[in-house]
């Protein structure tokens, strides 16, 4: 009997890859392995509508009841892969068992980057990565709660917005000179800092943590300045690290992610990667990139599934990201790290504007606030010589 195709990682990328393999006609054995006990769910909603209680566990499930049975997918939850032998095409598991595969797709995602700070293991300190983390946080952000969020990326700022909506006292501590630095311009960062401060959040920029202290629960956060901030809950939101250890240990090329080509192939025969854990060359941006977004998890997993079946495909997307804070919807198209000019259309006081990023006259990226039409237009025109109308 032929060995199965195996997918390790049961998040958005893994679930979509499994579905795509069936849709493309693969009718052999298919195994989807997830480390969490839950079936695949929409992780990006954890810091927004799930944390706020607007949606339930059932609402954020990626696939409906009967999905795995209907598509004849052997889904193995609460299963941890501990070893990969690329040459022998086998996986080893925490319980000592092994599994052979014909082809392997790694959609292992990422994990929170932890702080090397005294007291980081105290109860009440959590990184929001899993559904259980959100359920731990939710009752602790009610009115009267004292919440310190370490990290001013979009996840940290989304949690801050939800916590303030519940009436908690919220402090954001960010080591950099602005929030959401990795994905947004200074103009957008300034807008969101002002938005949070207007809603009562104490945003501390260029501020570092010295230690956490407490007994049965975290009680204080001491800053490098010596100042103490009272805390009942600390949410760590200092970025992520790709889960590429299996590949690295197996001799597969990695560099802040598993290196893959435009069809999702790793440097090992019949082993592929997609989603948050994969790094690929973007001709559009002239460098290797690793994209952490819903769009990338969906699109790259589909392209890679086709590549696993021998189809000639090529993946070079316009990366897209979305964040919602206090009802303000920020949509990001492209990567804005390398630009030599910007053009701002609209007015921040109207809560509707777009920041366009240009490089040598070409549109590289755009940040759109409450303007989905402009976002869609930017996606269409990125890479072209293009002049937005009506700059501020």
Automatic annotation (TrEMBL):
PANTHER family (UniProt xref): APOPTOSIS-INDUCING FACTOR 1, RIESKE DOMAIN-CONTAINING PROTEIN-RELATED
GO MF annotations in UniProt: oxidoreductase activity, acting on NAD(P)H
Entry cofactors: FAD
Keyword flag Flavoprotein: yes
Annotated protein name in UniProt: Pyridine nucleotide-disulfide oxidoreductase
Keywords (A to Z) from UniProt: FAD, Flavoprotein, Oxidoreductase
Organism whose genome encodes this protein: Rhodobium orientis
Domain (FAD/NAD(P)-binding): residue spans on this chain: 5-300
Reductase C-terminal domain segment(s): 323-380
Keyword tRNA processing part of the UniProt annotation: no
GO cellular component, one term: cytoplasm
């Amino acid at each position: 009997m032929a060995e199965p195709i195996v997918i390790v990682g049961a998040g958005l990328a893994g679930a979509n890859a499994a579905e795509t393999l069936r849709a493309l006609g693969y009718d052999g054995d298919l195994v989807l392995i997830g480390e969490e006990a839950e079936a695949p769910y929409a992780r990006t909603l954890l810091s927004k509508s799930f944390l706020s209680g607007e949606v339930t566990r059932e609402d954020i499930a990626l696939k409906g009841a009967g999905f795995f049975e209907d598509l004849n997918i052997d889904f193995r939850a609460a299963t941890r892969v501990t070893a990969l032998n690329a040459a022998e095409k086998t996986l080893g598991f925490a319980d000592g068992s092994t599994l052979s595969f014909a082809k392997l797709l790694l959609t292992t995602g990422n994990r929170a980057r932890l702080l090397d700070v005294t007291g980081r293991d105290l109860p009440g300190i959590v990184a929001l990565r899993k559904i259980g983390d959100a359920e731990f946080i939710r009752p602790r952000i009610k009115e009267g709660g004292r919440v310190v969020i370490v990290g001013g990326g979009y996840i940290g700022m989304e949690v801050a917005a939800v916590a303030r909506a519940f009436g908690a006292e919220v402090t954001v501590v960010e080591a950099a000179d602005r929030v959401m630095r990795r994905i947004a311009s200074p103009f957008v960062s300034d807008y969101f800092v002002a938005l949070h401060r207007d809603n009562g959040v104490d945003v501390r920029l260029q501020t570092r943590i010295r230690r956490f202290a407490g007994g049965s629960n975290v009680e204080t956060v001491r800053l490098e300045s010596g100042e103490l901030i009272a805390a009942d809950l600390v949410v760590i939101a200092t970025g992520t690290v790709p889960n590429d250890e299996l590949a690295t240990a197996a001799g597969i090329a990695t560099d802040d992610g598993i290196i893959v080509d435009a069809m999702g192939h790793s440097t090992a025969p019949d082993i592929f990667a997609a989603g948050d854990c994969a790094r690929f060359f973007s001709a559009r941006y002239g460098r290797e990139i690793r994209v952490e977004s819903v769009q990338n998890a969906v699109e790259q997993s589909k392209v890679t599934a086709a590549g696993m079946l021998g189809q000639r495909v090529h993946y070079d997307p316009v990366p897209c990201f979305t964040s919602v804070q206090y009802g303000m919807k920020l949509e990001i198209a492209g990567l804005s790290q390398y630009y030599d000019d910007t053009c701002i259309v609209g007015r921040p006081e109207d809560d509707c504007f777009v920041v366009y990023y240009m490089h040598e006259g070409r549109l590289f990226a755009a940040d759109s606030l409450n303007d989905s039409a402009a976002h869609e237009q930017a996606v269409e025109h990125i890479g072209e010589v293009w002049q937005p109308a009506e700059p501020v």
